[in-house]
TrEMBL record:
GO CC terms of this entry: cytosol
Top enzyme category: oxidoreductase
A Pfam family assignment: 2-Hacid_dh
Organism, as annotated: Litorilinea aerophila
Protein name from the UniProt record: Glyoxylate/hydroxypyruvate reductase B
UniProt cross-references to Gene3D superfamilies, sorted A to Z: NAD(P)-binding Rossmann-like Domain (3.40.50.720)
Lineage: superkingdom: Bacteria
Family listed: Belongs to the D-isomer specific 2-hydroxyacid dehydrogenase family. GhrB subfamily.
Coiled-coil annotated residue ranges, if any: none
């Protein structure tokens, strides 16, 4: 029997590719650069399975181009905001993602970014490189304490909880806001549910961990920044569009909040001349929160298993069920 035909849209960890090749006939865009949209639309024609990244838009146009053989879309990410899940459902196409396996690695980075922003670490490194380390000065590069601070977590899901667990070690007071209180997980973390206005008013740090959907698009806008403490720091490792970036820029320039640490932006990549990159109080990383060798390899394998199950018509090990 012939193998199912699948497309892999990028160079991926070797273990993931090898696993897919055991079962499928693979056409791979063997590059670290994105596959051009036109090429992808051509390549998907008649395929049985698609193994994609968060950089590809999986929409009606692409599904139409693929045709009726397509049984599964498997993404090498936990986030699936780039996939029109409802459109896949209408065509009986299964959708898989990689939840859980990247939670701890992503939380590590979120806390690292919070610490780096609070203690002005990138700014201090840049200052040394510019020859500005002339002597020990009492208030030079003085930042904000993380230990003992009040931290607000927006979205107490897998990653939000893993961040809360880490911050308990810093003796932080932890508040959270989510679509509903989550006492089943919050109580053991010592996290207290509050409404958004309370979170904005009381927190020294706010760290964003919801998924991107209609309810979280530009969730943090000019009004939210006005309600935050002037000494507050915003951390975003969720998705760029959860923050209104123009409003964030104004808030940082006008001193409405103290600083921001972003692992995700809108757009990605952020152009090198983007105004946010000129601000010393904004730390920007290139969407690397889950980027450890071990975690990216595990993600590639999970995405492979989702793809294989899908092309074989079996239930996916990690199906996306939500459509919002
Ligand atoms: N920077 C990076 O490299 C990475 C980024 N991510 C991003 O992090 C996101 C979260 O991942 P994960 O923790 O695994 O996902 P989860 O689904 O476990 O957590 C998301 C949480 O946010 C809640 N939520 C949804 N809407 C809102 C809202 N309007 N306000 C507040 N909370 C809300 C969800 O509630 P409910 O379930 O009821 O909807 C859920 O509790 C991913 O979707 C992805 O976008 C993830 C990994 C790496
Ligand atoms: O942003 C990364 C993801 O896995 O989602």
């Amino acid at each position: 029997m012939s193998k199912p035909n699948v497309v892999i849209t990028r160079r991926i960890p070797e273990a993931g590719l090898a696993r897919v090749q055991e079962v499928c006939q693979v056409r791979q865009w063997d590059s670290d650069d994105p596959i051009p949209r036109e090429t992808l639309l051509e390549w998907v024609r008649g395929i049985d399975g698609l193994y994609c990244l968060l950089t590809e838009r999986i929409d009606e146009e692409l599904l139409d181009a693929a045709g009726s053989n397509l049984r599964v879309v498997s993404t090498l990410s936990v986030g699936y905001d780039h996939i029109d899940v409802a459109a896949c459902r209408r065509r009986n196409i299964a959708v898989g993602n990689t939840p859980g396996v990247l939670t701890e690695t992503t939380a590590d980075l979120a806390v690292a970014l919070l610490l780096a922003t609070a203690r002005r670490i990138p700014e201090a490194i840049d200052a040394i490189r510019r020859g500005e380390w002339t002597t020990w000065k009492p208030m030079w590069m003085a930042g904000q304490d993380v230990h003992g601070s009040t931290v607000g977590i927006v979205g107490l899901g897998r990653i939000g909880r893993a961040v809360a667990r880490r911050l308990r070690g810093f003796n932080c007071r932890i508040l959270y806001h989510d679509v509903r209180p989550r006492p089943e997980v919050a109580d053991e973390l010592g996290a207290t549910y509050v409404d958004m206005d309370t979170l904005l008013a009381e927190c020294d740090f706010i760290t964003l961990h919801p998924r991107l959907n209609a309810s979280t698009y530009h969730l943090f806008d000019a009004e939210k920044f006005r309600k935050m403490k002037k000494t507050a720091i915003l951390i975003n490792t969720s998705r760029g569009p959860v923050v209104d970036q123009e409003a964030l820029y104004q808030a940082l320039v006008n001193g409405e909040i103290l600083a921001a640490g972003l692992d995700v932006t809108e757009p990605e990549p952020l152009p090198v001349d983007h105004p946010l990159l000129q601000l010393p109080n904004c730390v920007v990383l290139p969407h690397i929160a889950s980027a450890s060798v071990a975690t990216r390899t595990k993600m590639a394998l999970i995405a492979a298993e989702n793809l294989i199950a899908g092309v074989q018509g079996k239930p996916l090990p990690y199906p996306v069920e939500d459509e919002s």
